[in-house]
Amino acid sequence: MPVTFEVNGKPVSVEVEPRLTLADCLRHHLRLTGTHVGCEHGICGSCTVLVDGAAVRSCLILAVQAEDTKVVTVEGLSRDEGLTPLQASFRKHHALQCGFCTPGMITTAHALLSEEPDCDADRVREVLSGNLCRCTGYIPIIEAVLEARAAYKRGGNGA
Amino acid sequence: MKLPPFEYACPTTVAEAVALLASHDGEAKPLAGGQSLVPMLAFRIASPALLVDLRKLAELRQIKIGQDGVSLGAMVRWRDILDDERLAKAHPLLVAAVEHVAHYQIRNRGTVGGSLAHADPAAELPGMVITCDAKIVAVGKSGTRTIDAASFFQGPLITALKPDEIISEIRFPAWQAKRRFGFEEFARRRGDFALAAAMLFYDEDGGKARNAHVGAIGVADRPLRLPAVEQVLNGKAVDEAVIAEADAAASASVDPADDIHASGAYRKALVGVMVERALRRAAA
After folding, report:
1. Which residues of chain A have a CB within 8 Å of the CB of B41?
2. Which residue of A has its CA nearest to B5?
3. In the prediction, which pLDDT does B194 show?
4. Residue B234 — φ and ψ, nearest 5°?
5. Do B5 and A45 make contact, defined as CB atoms within 8 angstroms?
6. Quick check: B53 and A65 CB within 8 A?
7. A:95-124 residues touching chain B, CB 8 A cutoff
8. Is B44 on the interface with A (CB under 8 A)?
9. B182 Cα to chain A: minimum distance (Å)
10. Which CATH class is domain A85-153?
11. Per the confidence metrics, is the pTM higher than 0.80?
């Protein structure tokens, strides 16, 4: 069935089976492969995207449910040139190794910092507890998100 | 894995949703936030012929607070409860419970109606409706009926709902000012399903507890009330001796099975500790 929504600021219209998840729609139909699919059942957080500004797991949403929404993927949180403050903070703190979980970490952290730029380390830990990382041991990720707060506090969106 | 094939409908009225469910003879499922149902599909535990998406039913998204209590529309999300500042006063135990529900991204999608209809024995809201004597309003082809929480849960993932019924509303009785309460949960990681949790409240009369309500999750095939613990509390001042007695009564009330997450003996001990901690919080 047809579904129309907005991805990273651009309107898209795709023909999908009802059973197609938003994650697979983004990757296979729209070639936005930055969204990673880890567990396919809502445990790992790698596929996190923003739907109408809220961080959600795109493997637990059907593409047809995205009708009329605004979706932002990790591609929508980068610039053509140079790094965003959040990306720069991840690099500085070595907050990734293999990078598989990173799209989910970035989208989740962006949603958190946009809503709560004053969040403390406990809050960052609680929010990121829904995202699995098998490389870093998490501490560098927490540090990266904490440092990126400054860019969001200044009224910027960090992205 | 990838989801099994199904048809999809997105009705704009409750009546239309019910008609769609009724016309599929048990082969259709309502889709609320999808945070339990979509994993069930991914595991191929569920394979309905039709999903009836409730997302356009705006009348199911309301939180109403009045003298007769708190009413949650079935499509109210965890996020909506935590964002509603009125609830801190109108039902603080509900807020305390919801703080333990799932992870950040799930809370942006998961709904209260979905949680009850899914009926996981370790989920927080099923325990809360049992503990608080809430009522569950369901709409089906033969009309609207109100189901007592006590008779709603019939086993793991099994409820009193008929295949053509959807939950429209959950009604919590009014919360009394100065009521004492506690919610304590143990999970290996906050946001995961509880290994065990206890939720309780009581009112006080001359320093003594009365009207005690105590419930537990994660220790049986459905959420439980613990009347033996309520009996320990009613009519007594909640002191160290009573707390110890309540802990023992809670453990003695349950007989959990072993599973991959924990042994039955561990959960049996744990539920006592959860009751003890919840009581300490309540009495503080």
Report:
1. 19
2. A19
3. 93
4. -60, 130
5. no
6. yes
7. 108, 111-112
8. no
9. 21
10. mainly alpha
11. yes
Nearest to B105 among A18, A20, A48 (CB): A48
Mean pLDDT of B191-211: 95
* Residue B111 contacts residue B33 (beta carbons within 8 Å): yes
Residue window 132-151, chain A: list those with CB within 8 Å of chain B: none
Q: Is the pLDDT of residue B6 over 90?
A: yes
Same domain assignment for residues B46 and B86: no
Q: Locate the chain B residue with the closest alpha carbon to A131.
A: B103
Instruction: Please judge whether B38 and A61 are an interchain contact, meaning their C-beta atoms are less than 8 angstroms apart.
Output: yes
A2-76: CATH architecture: Roll (3.10)
Tell me what the pLDDT averaged over chain B comes to: 97
Whether residue B200 is found in the same domain as residue B156: no
Residue A4: strand pairing partners? A13
Structure tokens at B77: 């999300």
Residue A158 confidence (pLDDT): 62
| Shared-domain flag, residues B236 and B220 | yes
**What residue in A sits closest to B189 (Cα-Cα)?**
A129
Q: What angle do CA A44, B220, B98 make, to 5 degrees?
A: 50
What interface predicted TM-score (ipTM) does this complex get?
0.94
Which domain covers residue B69, as residue numbers? Answer: 62-172
A41 interfacial to chain B (CB closer than 8 Å): yes
Tell me: do B35 and B100 sit in the same domain: no
- Residue B1 falls within a domain, yes or no? no
Largest CA distance in chain B: 61
- Mean predicted confidence (pLDDT) in B120-133: 98
Hey, what amino acid is at B273? V
- B43 Cβ under 8 Å from any chain A Cβ: yes
| Helix/strand/coil (H/E/C) assignment for every residue in A120-149 | CHHHHHHHHCCCCCCCCCCHHHHHHHHHHH
**Are B146 and B198 found together in one domain?**
no
Q: How far is A42 from chain B (nearest CA, A)?
A: 7
Overall domain count for chain B: 3
Alpha-carbon distance of B194 to B278, in angstroms, equals 15
The C-alpha of A29 sits at a distance from chain B's nearest C-alpha, in angstroms, of 15
B78 in a structural domain: yes
Pairing of strands B153-155, B158-159: antiparallel
Q: A59 vs chain B: nearest CA distance in angstroms?
A: 8
Question: Got the DSSP string for B199-240?
Answer: EEEEEEETTEEEEEEEEEESSSSS-EE-HHHHHHHTTS---H
